[in-house]
Amino acid sequence: RHPVPRILVAWLILVLDMFLYGEDPVNDSHVECNLPGLGHMYVFLLVWPSSVGLIFLRIALLLSALVFGMWFGVSCFHHRLLRDCCGLEMFSGSNGTWLVMGLSCA
Length: 106
Known about the structure:
Blueprint lengths: L2 H19 L16 H9 L5 H34 L11 H9 L1
Helix pairs in contact: 3-4
């Protein structure tokens, strides 16, 4: 019914597509893009060293990063920002804690 919101949504999709994928969605031409850090994450998760000590070190680093991410998400994002500063009712008490922990670990 209203053409202006429809046109704005179409333009928003085009702009976000170019921002996220680094390609021109109009003619679907792929462009070289550089995503720093992405290769390092894949190597850290998928390529394992041959030494047993380095494997244990990597598992310890992964587990400590996971635990620290959950703690940081709960204490800083959930308690201080969302519950205390913003005063959002949906995060009162411990509501929404698992959502914040999952997002902060990702």
